[in-house]
Amino acid sequence: MKKPDSKKLLVVCRTLPPLIVGSSILMSNLINNYKGKVYAIGGWQYEAKSDKSFKLNCETTYVKFNLKIFQRIFEKYSYKFIGYIKNKIKQKAKEKKADYIMGVYPNSVFFVAAFLAAKEENIPFIAYMHDLWQENYTAESINGKLAAEYEKEILTNSYKVFCMTGIQKNFYDEKYNRCLKTDLFPHSISDDKLEGFELKNSYTVSGSAKILYTGNISNGMNLDAIKVLIKSLDYLGGDIKVTILCSFDNETLKRYGIFDERITYNWVDMKEAFEMQMKSDILFLPLSFKNCSPLEVKTVYATKALDYLVSGTPILVFSPPESFHTVSAKESGWGYVVEKDDAELLAESIKKLLGNNELKKNLVFNSFEEAKRRRSSLIAEKLYKTINN
């Protein structure tokens, strides 16, 4: 008997490669290890950094305008273009005869457009939640209004609601009285990152110790935690060097209150960033304790943690006790946890971690064990079985 063809999946995510944004990395890891028929459609982000070597291994369509002035208008007022985006998705879904449409949140506009396209074409819709939606916006904001209008309709009418952490899954289960078809769908690590992993022979620090932070900085997630790291330098010796890899220029860093002469700020491509992670002594994984989105901090899993896990470098987790980062790191031992918002305690913890070679080896070993559980091919296989059962 002839084996039936696999179902065709259309993935809709505003940010896709070559843009270096969290969701782009996550979808690249997943799609590039997916064995079924998959197509992708996304938008653009004018200000985002990009890397030409960062690619998606499937046919990809971008909803964007060639003229920068029109693209800027589109990005600023994207909520006015939901119908336009929806029609582009419908066109692609018809062209490829998609059996499922998977909308990836955290972009409200593309998420809503993907659902409406699926609804109008009578195609099963899968919601993949990289963040919480309604809880992260004020009721008066555009995103808040879209969430108030669409979140319940979308999630209750989805074929599946994929959640990135158990805490997020429990949150949505309780919010909607366990009426959603939720499933745990953790952020995954590209298989090739797991192949070359080697446990270092020694973690003894010689000369200057290097602490590295990579990725986005936002007020709702980690800005205050970065400020505490900077304050901790007052309690650390000058032989400890901190580098922050982010897309901010000096003017933006000063506006956010995180510019400090003792810190090196830079932006490099993904390959060099990973090489720097491997050569560092501590990787800093922060979430804010105050002046943030509490539910987001509690449920989120930062994309940067994926590379951190396979870098061979110990991870210092600085986050509140109830956050998934803290809970997971303590349960599985993949990170050294500081769960009190205190610069002096953070400095003492950095010194303790740097001075304990056995502790560092155990952390790195446990990090790799955690990474193996997040292998992209395993998560991609779960997605394949979900739509081909």
Tags for this model:
globular, single chain, 389 residues, alpha/beta, seven-stranded parallel beta sheet, six-stranded parallel beta sheet
Shape: globular
Helix-strand string: EHEEHHEHEHEHEHEHEHEHEHHEHEHHH
* Percent of sequence in beta strands: 15-25%
What's the number of extended β-strand segments? 13
Which structural class is indicated by helix and strand composition? alpha/beta
Query: What is the makeup of the main sheet?
Result: 7 strands, parallel
- Determine the number of helices (DSSP H or I, runs of at least 4 residues): 16
Distance between the termini: 18 Å
How much helix, percentage-wise, in residues? Answer: 40-55%
Provide a descriptive summary of the structure in words.
This protein has 389 residues and is an alpha/beta fold. The chain is 43% helix and 15% strand. The chain is built from 16 helices and 13 strands. It has helices at 22-31, 68-76, 82-96, 108-121, 142-156, 166-175, 191-195, 223-232, 250-256, 270-279, 294-299, 304-309, 324-332, 343-354, 357-373, 376-387, and strands spanning 8-12, 37-42, 60-62, 100-105, 125-129, 160-163, 182-184, 209-214, 240-245, 263-266, 282-286, 315-318, 336-338. Strand 5, helix 5 and strand 6 form a beta-alpha-beta unit. Helix 4 runs parallel beside helix 5 (142-156) and helix 8 (223-232) crosses helix 14. The longest helix has 17 residues, at 357-373. The chain starts with 7 loop residues before the first strand and ends with a helix.
